[in-house]
Every structure is written in C-alpha cells, then in structure tokens.
Amino acid sequence: xxxxxxxxxxxxxxxxxxxxxxxxxxxxxxxxxxxxxxxxxxxxxxxxxxxxxxxxxxxxxxxxxxxxxxxxxxxxxxxxxxxxxxxxxxxxxxxxxxxxxxxxxxxxxxxxxxxxxxxxxxxxxxxxxxxxxxxxxxxxxxxxxxxxxxxxxxxxxxxxxxxxxxxxxxxxxxxxxxxxxxxxxxxxxxxxxxxxxxxxxxxxxxxxxxxxxxxxxxxxxxxxxxxxxxxxxxxxxxxxxxxxxxxxxxxxxxxxxxxxxxxxxxxxxxxxxxxxxxxxxxxxxxxxxxxxxxxxxxxxxxxxxxxxxxxxxxxxxxxxxxxxx
Amino acid sequence: xxxxxxxxxxxxxxxxxxxxxxxxxxxxxxxxxxxxxxxxxxxxxxxxxxxxxxxxxxxxxxxxxxxxxxxxxxxxxxxxxxxxxxxxxxxxxxxxxxxxxxxxxxxxxxxxxxxxxxxxxxxxxxxxxxxxxxxxxxxxxxxxxxxxxxxxxxxxxxxxxxxxxxxxxxxxxxxxxxxxxxxxxxxxxxxxxxxxxxxxxxxxxxxxxxxxxxxxxxxxxxxxxxxxxxxxxxxxxxxxxxxxxxxxxxxxxxxxxxxxxxxxxxxxxxxxxxxxxxxxxxxxxxxxxxxxxxxxxxxxxxxxxxxxxxxxxxxxxxxxxxxxx
Lengths: 325, 325
Prior knowledge:
The structure is a homodimer. In chain A, the strands form two sheets. The first copy, chain A, has a six-stranded parallel beta sheet with strand order 1-6-5-4-2-3. Chain A is elongated. Chain A has two domains: 4-195, inorganic pyrophosphatase (n-terminal core) (Alpha-Beta Complex), CATH 3.90.1640.10; 200-324, Roll (Diaminopimelate Epimerase, Chain A, domain 1), CATH 3.10.310.30. Helix content of chain A is 38%, strand content 17%. In chain A, α2 packs parallel to α4 (130-140) and α2 (31-46) packs antiparallel against α5 (147-160). By secondary structure, chain A is an alpha/beta fold. The interface between A and B is large, with 42 and 42 residues.
C-alpha cells in the first residue's frame, strides 16, 4: 500500500474542493485527534461544506466544548479524511468505523511511523501536534480561524506538548499558539479544564498510589503500584491513571520511575519512565515489552512481589550498565 | 516619591550607557526576578560591562544554571537596577541589600501595584512576566540573546505563567517564547527542572496532606491541612508547600479549595483558592485576611477544628450569597 505525499498547499486544495466530508479520529481519542477533528469540522462548515466526525470510542465529556457534529449517517461521505491517525489499526472497530476506515482518502498526521494507509498524506513529523500542521492547512485554505476553531487547535497543541513542556515544543509551536490566542482561543479556561481538573476517583487512586511509594536502589528508583481491588474501589477510569505514571520519575534524584497497575485478569501492567540518559526501552525489552527511550512498558504475570523483584532487577542491571559506560 | 516613566527605548539607552551595574532581585526570589537578573547580567557582561546581582535571600539551588555573578563588593555600583520588584519592602533586609535598595536608579517591572520607588521605571502590566518586557529592552539594546540569556528569560516567562497556563499568558508571551527557543533556550531541560521535579520531603508532605483531604458543603469545598508536627516530620521547606494550595480547587466540581498550614507558633495559615466566579478575597476578608479574586488568605488562631469551622462557615456564606445573585 503506497500513499502519495502532499504538500500543505496540495492538501488545502483537496479539502477546499470537497464536500460531504467524513473526518476520522483515532480510537481512545486524545486532545490532538479531537482538536483537529473539531477544527476541521468547524472550518469546513463555516465554508459551507457538509462535514461530520466519526470516532470508534466516545469523545470524553471534558471535550464537549469542541462542539463538533458526530456522524450519524446524515450524508453519504464523498471524502474521508483522517487526523492524527498513524495506522489503520488505530481507527478501532466500534460505531461504523470499519465501513470507512478501510478506504481513507486524506490523512494529516505528525507521527514518524505513519504507515501510509491513505490515498494522500500530509505528514510532518517535526510538528509537535497534528493541530500545528492543520493550522497551516487551514491558513492555506483561507478558512476562517474563528474562536471555536482556535479553541480546537489550541487543544491539540497544548495536550500533545504537555502545555508546551515536552521536547517536541518548538518555536513554531509557540508561533501557532500566539496566532490562536489572537484568534480568540481561551487559554485559561481550556488549560484549567485540560490540565488542572481531576475527578474525585482520580484523586482517591492517586492518594492510594502515593501511600504505596517506595524508594529502591539508593533512591535511584521510585516505585508506586495499584492493585485491581484498589483501582476498583477508587472508581477511577483506566485512562485517568495514565498520567500517574509520570509521578515516580518526577522525584528529585530519581533516575527510573516505575508504576505497576494490576489488570482485571490479575497480571501487572508496568510503566517505566526514565530521566534523560537512562534507557527505559532497554529495561522493558528485557521483560518482554518495549517502547521509547524515556517511556516504555511491559506486562508481568504473577503476584506483586514477584513483579516488583523482576522489574527492580532489570532496572538495577540497566543503571549498572549505564554507569560503566 | 515620584518616578519618571520610561519607554522601552529610553530604558535600553540608560542601560547601554551604564557600567558597574548592580542588579537587585526581590526577596524570596522566584523564577521571574532570578531569570531577569540572570539575563540582564549575562547581556551586560557580554557587552563588556561590569555587573553583578544582589538578593536579600539565597538563590534556590535549582536556579544554579542561570550562572549569574552575585555581588560581593567587586565594584562600586554606579547604577542600581531592580527587576520584577514592585515596592521597597520587597527587597528584604539581608546581605547588603539595605545599603542599595534605598536609592534605586532603574526599575523594570510588570506589577500593576508598582509603587514608583525608582528614579526611572519601565512598567508594563500587560506583560505576563518582567522577563517578557526585559526581552524587548535587550532587543532594543541590541544585546546578544545567547543561549544563556535565552534560558534565563525563558525561566521568567514560564514560571510566571505556570508554563503558559495562566490567564496572563498572551499572544506576545508565546511570540517571545518562540524567539527564545530560536535563540537556544532548552525547553525540555528547564521545564523538567522547573515543573516536574519534586523533593522527597515535598512528596512526603503532599502524601500526608492528601490523606487529610475532606469534602464539605456537598462537594463544593475541598480542604486539606498540615499540622506543624507533620510539616516538621516531612522535612519540607515552607516555600515548597506553596504549590500545594492549588490542589483542592483542582478537583472536579469543587468551587472553593482551602489549605490550612499550621505555623511554628501554632496558628493556622489559611489559603483560599476559588473557581472562576467565586470571590476568594471576600471569604478571606471576613476572616481578617485579603488577597485577590481567586487566591486569598488569612491567619487563624485556635485549634484545627475551630479554624476549619470558621473557614467553612465563611465559605458557605459566600457560596450562598453567590447563588442568590
């Protein structure tokens, strides 16, 4: 399967020429795929086009302000466009997704690993978020950047960069943020909602996890865990626990942060986060998992003590190997 | 006491014409006053001037990367310039500060309440950080924005805006951030240090406070507290606890977040944080304190239960009054 790469100008032309456009998000939708879908939906409808958004999973209620129309068969799609989706597998299988995800016309994405499943792809892996790239497409389309469009694009930009904290943040990211604020993006309201609002179940799960904090290997490794009973009793959503995995490595002098979450079946899902210079992926791989240099994971069977020992042994091996370098 | 207001151009001219420049920070120095002092110090020395920085309190070790020269009498100051200091009281009394703070030549600041204590003042209260304003002064001076200067200015910008999250963040803030990244500011390293690193004592104090989390008034108010014994046993610095005060109000559906910290003398320091539309200052004022619309405080004598009841009664009164509006 080969895709034809497009420039920003070419993508803008194809979108401008289209009507009855179905916009596809990836499953477990995050702020970038939702923000892009919302921005593209509002820009296209403001330009008189008919458009709607399809996602295999429900859009989390916190993103209700993106106010996009979900696809319910209100038109027969004549163009299918995916935003922030790196591969066909990421579309998911729910709703009517499989009907449309097997033939995608256009794709706008920033993931290096994009598999080229669409007929035409605009890919820029230097963009911090797909929303950063979509902003350029909308400018080229001469689409109106209304406050609603600006809110949506800002959502993608800020969520994919941890609010301009992560290493993917570039001068261009800030330049686009400046333009979106000028266009009316509501910085404080959105950031309060996106970064400073935690559910009560999430607070309870974090309280329990913090009570389980352990330091190992002379303080170079910090570990937290949650059993399936604790997760169930707190009432927290699994998705709401993702962010917890960054907690142990945020402690001063900690080089490796480990988070163990027991799954409904009993196994432990292990998340490994490392300080700069320590290879998380190498630790995870030796336990049958994988990932990135500073964020990796694996799944371990057996009880909590066995899972802990197995991880700590590999963390120690990696830290020792690194010291010898 | 009257100050003469300067434009960015006039401030740049006065700094460019000076030598043997003493730069003053405010007491309990934060990222903005330190970042500005560092940036001005490095810019001036790169331009061949002699300069040094004076602060009444020690510069926290986490800011060591600003690498500025502290004043130890190495020259007789011929110009005294204050950065991010709103009033004479904020200079503090330690080190040799009182020798110099009684006659300040230049002041660069962004606080609306600047008292005009300096001979000449560049004040712009629309700047999110004094660093945002100093960037313009340095550009006008044609000072070299080296990576070191960029790191310092970025520090002021990101700390005073909660990493571009707070309502003071404008398009201009992002435009300056973009320029600083182009000039070599190390986004990820600095943000990890400034926002994602917590000391072990801070983690322990937060663990205790979270175990004390209480919901009141049908979940509209959340409250945490720390006794002086708990603060002492955790080993945390008082300054390190400031950020905790934003925790209770970050919980979904909470309108008022209250944090009580017992002081060494036994009284309780009360921090009140509110959601948009609820007046924190009005609650604090009725308890003998004061502050801003969404962040205020007071001090209460008596035991914990009495302090809690007193605060909760006023929180309830304010929420009831607000509902009637």
